[in-house]
UniProtKB/TrEMBL annotation, chains A, B:
InterPro entries: MBLAC1, Metallo-B-lactamas, RibonucZ/Hydroxyglut_hydro
Function as written in the Swiss-Prot or TrEMBL entry: Endoribonuclease that catalyzes the hydrolysis of histone-coding pre-mRNA 3'-end. Involved in histone pre-mRNA processing during the S-phase of the cell cycle, which is required for entering/progressing through S-phase. Cleaves histone pre-mRNA at a major and a minor cleavage site after the 5'-ACCCA-3' and the 5'-ACCCACA-3' sequence, respectively, and located downstream of the stem-loop. May require the presence of the HDE element located at the histone pre-RNA 3'-end to avoid non-specific cleavage.
GO CC aspect terms: cytosol
Chief location category: cytoplasm
Family according to the record: Belongs to the metallo-beta-lactamase superfamily. Glyoxalase II family.
Entries under Gene3D superfamilies matching the protein: Ribonuclease Z/Hydroxyacylglutathione hydrolase-like (3.60.15.10)
Pfam family, one: Lactamase_B
Oligomeric and partner information: Homodimer.
SMART domains: Lactamase_B
Protein name (record): Metallo-beta-lactamase domain-containing protein 1
Annotated catalysed reactions: a ribonucleotidyl-ribonucleotide-RNA + H2O = a 3'-end ribonucleotide-RNA + a 5'-end 5'-phospho-ribonucleoside-RNA + H(+)
Ranges where the Metallo-beta-lactamase domain occurs: 62-223
Length: 232, 232
């Protein structure tokens, strides 16, 4: 999140027209397209994030929560602390208890993304560039720009900019192609006017964004609905 | 935390001799000195953090957890997800339920510091530069270098460097003088050889450290025991 005093825009309804960014075109998907089946991994957006300016200068905001199921069960971002009951209930509706989550990825350490880590004390925990199993932290090469491979289909990719140690999760082989669970690499589909104010390093962030647009077919952003990427 | 591939040192036993850093001298306090009574605020270190290299290249690490009691009840850092039961039990021993915590401060978004935010869904949540009440985020001036005042005795001060939006909590009026709950601004008392490798911006971090050494009488670091600051 990190709103500081900057603006924040929402793309809740997916009604924006297609956005061109150089040789890429980003197209909002429909509000109901929250599931991306695939083999061996499928994704499901449990909660689409939002960021809504209020009239009193505050913002109501929450980060997108995404579940990846397949050979491993992976939760990407956990919302804010207020999402605790929602998250437990939604996982239960999918037949899952917290202990069934093998890996929790916090794309970055903002409170609307890492609000519920404590629900998953037995999961491998990846928050930004830190990878831990209980209190044992394992060295890795994320800070050197190398993806952390969960398996041949799923990897955690460094995507700094919004924060200095931000990561995203790339899933190959879905029916929609390669899906990137982006975290706040992208706020929403049409975030050209807002992402810079929420970025800790816009130059680094831009590089990360361009790399995502080159490789992902669908992007699940941190504060909006999923969108498709078309490359000319 | 963020160990990447860098070293990490522990100062668990407080046996290091005094450390000089320019005109400052830092002196470890005894292992048993974890309480700092005062009026109107007192502090209690519920768990001293640690960072212990293992023979297999991993690290065992946890962030310091500090309770501040007085007109408001404030928890600074929440450990890692594995600390959930310990934290609940320890608060209970002090006669506190999670709902009694008015403010939770996550000094920064690393997993060994923000592991248990979900225990406190009713608290005002300050994680790095983000201040929220439920999902309502309030603008503030932390990114502009201005402290966020909880009251005339307690303030959240920006202390960037370890991460770009790192904060510390300053408490005036204790029997030990001004106490700074530093987070990872300081790893431990004798961290001269280690803090830079764990820092995202050493130049900015050094400025933050010097400011802390100028103003605090006692510093509670993120991965070690509290220590005293003596100024020549």
């Amino acid at each position: 999140m990190h709103n500081g005093t900057g603006p924040c825009y929402a793309d809740m309804m997916g009604t924006d027209s297609e956005v061109f960014s150089g040789q890429f075109q980003t197209v909002p998907l429909s509000e109901s397209q929250l599931d991306f089946p695939g083999k061996p991994y499928s994704l499901s957006v449990l909660k689409a994030g939002y960021c809504l300016p209020q009239t009193d200068g505050t913002f109501r905001a929450d980060g997108t929560i995404t579940l990846i199921t397949g050979p491993r069960t992976i939760l990407v971002d956990t919302g804010g602390p207020w999402d605790r009951d929602f998250l437990l209930k939604t996982l239960k509706e999918k037949g899952l208890e917290p202990r069934d989550i093998n890996v929790v990825v916090g794309t970055h350490g903002h409170s609307d993304h890492v609000g519920n880590l404590s629900l998953f004390p037995t999961a491998v925990m990846i928050v930004g560039y830190d990878i831990s199993d209980g209190d044992t932290y394992r060295p890795n090469q994320l800070a050197e720009g190398h993806a952390y491979t969960i398996d041949e289909h799923v990897s955690v990719v460094p995507s700094p900019g919004h924060t200095g140690q931000h990561v995203s999760v790339q899933v190959a082989g879905t029916s929609a192609g390669t899906v990137l669970v982006a975290g706040d690499l992208f706020e929403c589909c049409s975030d050209e006017d807002s992402w810079r104010d929420l970025s800790m390093n816009t130059a680094v962030h831009e590089v990360s964004r361009q790399e995502a647009l080159r490789t992902a077919d669908v992007i699940i952003p941190g504060h909006g609905l999923p969108f498709r990427v078309l490359r000319s």
